[in-house]
Each structure stands twice: as C-alpha cells, then as structure tokens.
Amino acid sequence: MKLTQQRIQYIDDYLRKSGVQFWDVRLEILDHVATGVEEKMTHESMSFEAALEAITISFGNEIRQGYILNKDNTKWIKSTKYATGEGFEKLQREKQKQISKKHAKAYWKQFINLFTSVQFYIEFALMILSIFVISKYSEKWALTVGFVYLFYPFISIIYKSIKGQIPKKSLHINMSMVGVFMWINIFSLVPNIYKSYYDEKMEFQLFAWMLILLFPLIKASFIRYDNVCKEYKKYYDLISN
Q1: Cα(133)–Cα(28) distance, rounded to whole angstroms?
Q2: Does residue 41 contact residue 48 with C-beta atoms inside 8 Å?
Q3: Are 111 and 217 in contact (CB under 8 A)?
Q4: Annotated domain spans of the chain
Q5: E strand or H helix at 83, and its extent?
Q6: pLDDT of residue 165
Q7: Which end of the chain is more exposed for a tag (fewer CB within 10 A), N or C?
C-alpha cells in the first residue's frame, strides 16, 4: 500500500520528535521506515499506526504512552504514543562515524589537490611575502595579515549562514566543519602551550611559520566545507520543492 504524502510527512514529524534532528539523516531513515510501513500494511494487514510502531521498535526503540491534561486540567488522559529514540540515536552515531570517515578521506584528497592549483601557489606566495615584508615595519601587523589570510573565508560562511544559503541541521555539513575547527583549535592551542612551557610569548618567527604551515591545511578545510554546503544546498532545495 503506497503511503500518502500526508502520512510521509507524519513519519517525518514523528522522527523529528523522536530525536532525529539532522534532516539528511532523517531523510535516509524516513525512506526505510516508510518502506517498512508500506510492506506491513500490505502484507500483514496492519493499520498505519500499528505498522509505524512495529517499524520503530525494530530500530531498537521503545514505545511509550504519552499523557496530557484534560480541558479542565483536572486529569491526565492518554495522548499519542511516542518513541524513546534510543534506537535512532544509535543509528545517528553510526551514521556520524561513517560520514566522519568519508569527509576525512575527501579532505586529504582536497589537500593534495591544492598543490596542483596555480591559484593556490599564488595566494600562498602572497601570504608568505606579505608576512615577511610587513614584519620589517611591524611584527604585530605582519601576524594580523597572516591571520586574515587564514580565516577570511569565515566572512563568506557567516554571510551565507545569515542569508539562509547554508541548510541547517545537516550532519554532513556539521561534520565537514569539524576539520575547520580542529585547525582553529590548534592555532589557539600551540601559543598557549608554548607560553606555559617557556613562560614567555611565542617568538614572531615561530608564530609566522605556524601561520604559514597551517595555511594549506585550513585552506583545504574551507574548500571542503564550501563544496559540501553547495552539494547539500542543491539536495535540500530539491527535496524541499
């Protein structure tokens, strides 16, 4: 029995209320749940509600009875049953591991591809040249310029996020951003460790070379993130229309 669009939307809302917040993961689960419900309704003559409950349990969830107050607020009455969501959470963790491995592999491929790009070499050379030329006049401004070279793509990310051009609640997009934040954490962590160990601020030369060495790593992370955003924006727009 083919499910109506209203029932598919009901399952989608049901999954969201059961803790499946990422739309791209929910879409994959929705396909499995809808297919299972259709089969049980067709071959086992189950009602839609009974079939959905059975499929939900098959994912490792428990079903509990919800309760709400009556109109007079004097008595608790039975409401819609709901899934505890443990099974879906387990599935999401497994999905997160799969996606993490996928993005790690794609990231290092993107990193290697950088060194085949003339544009990258030009930008990298300009960064190095800017840092060491400006340092002759001001080491502080030289490091500031290096910092801007590293993180200026954040301006585009913030703008796109404000304009709604980046789909929210996407596990794929979240995982692609992990690489960016990892290098940012290293950028802030290394000087702190140096200061704790030597009891003095990191010297300009060391700071400058850290910026230079991090540049291709962070550049690859931003490119990877931008590519994933574009891919899943098209995918999101496709399923939303």
Answers
A1: 53
A2: yes
A3: yes
A4: 5-84, 95-240
A5: strand 76-83
A6: 76
A7: C
Instruction: Express each pLDDT in 220-233 by its tens digit.
Output: 988 898 888 888 88
How many Cβ atoms are within 10 Å of 95's Cβ, its own excluded?
18
Q: How many residues does the chain have?
A: 241
Helix (H) or strand (E) holding 184, with range, is: helix 171-198
Q: pTM for this structure?
A: 0.75
Tell me the helix, strand and coil percentages in the chain, rounded to 5: 75, 5, 20
CB 208 within 8 A of CB 143: yes
Structure tokens at 185: 């954490």
For residues 186 and 214, what is the distance between their CA atoms, to the nearest angstrom? Answer: 9
What does DSSP say about strands 63-69 and 76-83: parallel, antiparallel, or unpaired?
A: antiparallel
Closest CA to 209 of 100, 136, 132: 132
What residue type is 154 in one-letter code? Answer: F
